[in-house]
Amino acid sequence: MERFFVHILALLWLSVVCLAGYGQYSDHRNRNVDSLEMVLNGSNPPQGQELMKAYNNLMWGYLNTDGAKSRQYALKAIDLSYEENMLNARADALRVLGLIAYGNDDYDVAIEYYNRALEVSDSMKNDSRYSESDIDDNLSVIYGSIANVYNMQDKVHLAIHYYQKALPIFEKYGWLESTAILYYNIGELYNSMGNSDEARSNYLMAVDAAQKSGDSLLVAMSHKGLVAIYNDAGDMAKVEEAANVCYEYYRNHIEEEKGDYIVTILAFARLQMNHYKDLDRAEGYISEALSLLDDETGWETRSNVYTACCELAMARKQWKKAEEYALMSLEDEYETYDDIGVYVYLAQIYAELGNNEGVKEYSEKIFRGMAQFANSNYQSGLSQMAVLYETEKKQAAIEQLTREKRWYMIGSVLIGCIMLLVALLFFLLWRNVRKNRQNAIVVAKLSGEVAERVRIARDLHDRMGGLLTSIKRNLEYAENPGETNESILTAKAQTDEAMREMRNVAHHLLPESLKRYGLRVALGDYCRTMKNVSFSFVGDEKLIPNQYDEAVYCIVYELVNNAVKNAEANHIRVQLFADAETIVVNVSDDGNGGIAVSTEGSGMRNIKERVDAIGGTFDVCSEPGKGSEVNIEIRNK
Predict the structure, then answer these.
(1) What φ, ψ does residue 587 adopt, rounded to 5°?
(2) Distance of alpha carbon 100 from the chain centroid
(3) Helix axes 416-459, 602-613, angle to 10 degrees
(4) 184-226 pLDDT, tens digit each
(5) Residues 501, 521: one domain?
(6) Could you tell me if 169 and 55 lie in one domain?
């Protein structure tokens, strides 16, 4: 429910921002639409721009009360925009049609209208009638609207992409309220992907923007997201600090924000259980949460309360009571990723109760749920990457056409043979470059998808296969007398590790920091997530061509993982050097030289192929018991 509210809040604010650029349209909600319709049907109806103003006020005025009439006037506005060559009005009408489709949950149609509005806004760049701020107004609100649609569809990669396209425009003009909303939405999306570092960063930026704008609701909501992240990281001091911010706001707005208040007091309950070990105080918070449940409480909040009750009962070793609350938290017909955590609880509960059949049933559900999560995220990620590829390709085509038009206007002033020669040469060059570029994009896309499939399969096999096999064996041992409790506890610990590994694999599907901040930041972020791995950079990052970023990142990723799995090293060093002539990557460890054993494995073959693809050289120095060093040198083109 909260997520839907934020999407609607963002959409409404984006609408206000867009309308703020047009004073004549900003008061459409106060217009008397009946009076306007009477004017249109009178003996002397307005014409030209005055008629467009009337259509605009009517389509916005009816938007929340009569969708059919709003659509009718939006279509009239589009027809008139072609007659009067009003690009801005056309983009506005297309956006209204997108909002109507969005309100009807017809998301594909909404995206189609928003994309048409984007094309119109792009064409305004070559029209002197429209200022940079006019165009930015349109682009920012359309980017935000597209992101909201993808957000509602749980297409996180696409939603993040379009939110991040809108953010620079909001920050450029100092629109703090909209900036805070978008940073919060991006944080929520990264949190849903298991990328806590990016989620935390965006929540904190949302807090900063919300505090500057005085939006206390967004401050509280962002801190609520931070509570979950700090809790997963085990930073209890920050958990308590963030929870106190939430509590101060939601306690004073309990009637409007009851669900969020319940979530906040549950955070305090878990803090008391897991950190302070004060079960009585935890019970007080949980009892208050139970008392606040009513018929209007959403299932997600209700399930959260029952899960907390289960955790308290488990802490007190009240296993039958814990079983009752755990099953209550699963009564919803839709299975979610959060249910896997409850399955883990039930497996442990049934182990304590000596119910081996229950242990087996919920262990199987854990494995099945994790597999479904991994597969659905993988398939969704591929689908969204395909959409982004097509979108960027279309945008590139629009920009190319814009450049052609500019050259045509310049060339039109030339005369005679010079004009014909230049035009012919430009056309031939453009056709050749475009053909080569399209071929390169297709090849790169196909190669990237194949490589990504292979890498994901390898990660899941190497990092999850052994864990799942070990869990299976422990569950089989559970059937033997005298070994049940120890085997089940071992299986639970291994299941937790398997879930962490699954989140790590999902996190590295798309290193967002590589695209946003470059190779040095992305490698530094990755190395910091690994134990005993250090990173250093020497040289000028600007000298590294962009086309090498992904290849070098993947090479370092494979080498570090190879060292972690095979070398038994206490420390792994990653060094990157760049100057005008060469790019050098060096990965060394003080382990047992185990990397030498794996030089003929699929991991090393993948690294060699990537190095060959970018014209580099690859050297391995590794002896058993003496550590390993890999040196890669790439000629800077």
Answers:
(1) -125, 120
(2) 25
(3) 170
(4) 999 988 888 778 899 999 999 999 999 999 999 999 999 999 9
(5) no
(6) yes
The residue among 258, 262, 254 whose CA lies nearest residue 227 is 262
Last residue of a domain, one of 139, 173, 207: 173
CA distance linking residue 492 with residue 183, whole number of Å: 36
Residue 323 has φ and ψ, to the nearest 5°, of -60, -45
Q: 16-35 pLDDT, tens per residue?
A: 444 333 333 333 333 467 77
* Phi, psi angles (nearest 5°) of residue 318: -95, 80
Indicate whether 167 belongs to any domain: yes
Using alpha carbons only, what angle is made at residue 535 by residues 529 and 539, rounded to the nearest 5 degrees? 140
Contact of 471 with 363, CB cutoff 8 Å: yes
Q: Give the burial class of 132: count Cβ atoms within 10 A of its Cβ; 0-12 exposed, 13-18 middle, 19 or more buried.
A: exposed
Asked whether the whole model's pTM tops 0.90, one would answer no
Runs of H (alpha helix) within 153-214 = 156-173, 176-193, 196-213
Q: Which domain holds residue 131?
A: 1-173
Q: Would residue 149 count as lying in a domain? A: yes
Going from the C-alpha of 12 to that of each of 99, 177, 324, 356, 382, the distances in angstroms are 10, 12, 42, 53, 31
Q: What is the CATH number of the domain that holds 556?
A: 3.30.565.10
